[in-house]
Amino acid sequence: MGTPKPLRGKVPVSIITIIICALAFVALLYTERISSFSSSNILKIKPCAKKNPAKKSITDNRNTGSGALNYAADDRFEFDPEECSLVHGKWVFNRTIKPLYSDRTCPYLDRQVSCVKNGREDSDYRHWEWQPDDCMLPRFDPKVALRRIEGKRLMFVGDSLQRGQWQSFVCLVESVIPEGQKSMKRGRLHTVFKAKEYNATIEFYWAPFLVESNSDLHIVADPKKRILKVDSIENHAKNWMGVDILVFNTYVWWMSGLRIKSLWGSFANGEEGYEELDAPVSYNIGLKTWANWVDSNVNPNNTRVFFTTMSPTHQRSADWGNDKGIKCFNETKPILKKRHWGTGSDKRLMSVVAGVVGRMKVPVTLINITQLSEYRIDAHASIYTELGGKLLTDEEKEDPLHYADCIHWCLPGVPDTWNQILYAHLL
Ligand SMILES: *[C@@H]1O[C@H](CO)[C@@H](O)[C@H](O)[C@H]1NC(C)=O
Ligand SMILES: *[C@@H]1O[C@H](CO)[C@@H](O)[C@H](O)[C@H]1NC(C)=O
Ligand SMILES: *[C@@H]1O[C@H](CO)[C@@H](O)[C@H](O)[C@H]1NC(C)=O
Ligand SMILES: *[C@@H]1O[C@H](CO)[C@@H](O)[C@H](O)[C@H]1NC(C)=O
Ligand SMILES: *[C@@H]1O[C@H](CO)[C@@H](O)[C@H](O)[C@H]1NC(C)=O
């Protein structure tokens, strides 16, 4: 663990330490997952010391909302992107709602997110539906979705959370495509699912920072050794040319808790010419590089651009008033308190996104998933996941403090709702 520069602000230092420690761990965890491709580095996870869990200053705000199970007369109108914000709403439990796929029926899911296969037994987390306050979010209809992308390329670009959203989309539609009419071609950076009869592709392109870094193809396990070329994007972006629907994200990789080694200009000095910048500063430069690329290369008459906002992490159970909890481990219900916002979603980076996207020439539709996902402490992969290509052992499962994954989401699960929002915008 390094000695990261303390963040400014009123948050007590001990909390910061916990967060940083958790995030640094997360970064490693992260890395490990992806590197299962290259499998060159065996990581040692260095556990952070368990910190004093109780924080008196955090009020118990758990499950105090009256919301989710109250039904008023439903006078909400059909979704219209101009009229209705999907950001504010509530999760409603409805056991008759069944996901369109399972981790046994969809052959394209990574083991990382296949929670049921990995032993998760509680199932309530699969039966919650997001209801925006002002309108009705249309149900995802796979055939309609396929018709909307007929003759087109749909590409998700970003990190492993984006990969989850991509897998969710593939699984949501694949069951209506007959055998022999679909194919999956996997590459290290670029993976393509093809629906032949629709002449459509649903693709994923790995670029965890969107901009280039020394940790794209070969993951650098130690966040301190990662260097970002915050003004370079072409090597990735040339693969995005001519795509009809682009869906981007980037967030969690910027959250190592360390200052970001950022390099720009010519690289005459080699990689040593970097400067260490605070995450929001570096993120701002990186995102502007992306925005410039989009503005100069995307013709909005032909291409639609989406940006998925940050996916919250749930590393600190005191955020939702569960002082005795261990991260998101063992949580089986969403937070019902309206507007709950935890320490796993950095508002500074959110405002960078709002600022950069707001000034772009090409219109970018935000899929603002942060608030709705913030509530879903129950839906992470937790201990029902893998590490370095292997299922967690029973011993590791006994040690959720170090092994529970409270970043990624089980599938089926919350990313299906992100795609329901994307779908609503494609109708
Ligand atoms: C639950 O979902 C079913 C199927 O979509 C729907 O008919 C029913 O009205 C829902 N129940 C509630 C309480 O919303
Ligand atoms: C299939 O879609 C691609 C674009 O994704 C297009 O270039 C090609 O012409 C289409 N082919 C047919 C037969 O429609
Ligand atoms: C987009 O379409 C409009 C209307 O057809 C046209 O005026 C405009 O020049 C087009 N923009 C680009 C970048 O091609
Ligand atoms: C997890 O939850 C179950 C059921 O609520 C409970 O029996 C068990 O003790 C909990 N485990 C831990 C480690 O908190
Ligand atoms: C997303 O929604 C939240 C409210 O939940 C808001 O604070 C934030 O500014 C929105 N993000 C962007 C980039 O507009």
TrEMBL record:
Residue intervals of the Trichome birefringence-like N-terminal domain: 82-135
Topology of the protein relative to the lipid bilayer: Single-pass membrane protein
Positions of transmembrane segments: 12-30
Domain of life of the organism encoding this protein: Eukaryota
Domain Trichome birefringence-like C-terminal: 137-424
Taxonomic source organism: Penstemon smallii
Family stated for the protein in its record: Belongs to the PC-esterase family. TBL subfamily.
Record Pfam families: PC-Esterase, PMR5N
Name this polypeptide is given: Trichome birefringence-like N-terminal domain-containing protein
Cellular localisation: Membrane
Cellular component aspect of the GO annotation: membrane
Keywords: Membrane, Signal-anchor, Transmembrane, Transmembrane helix
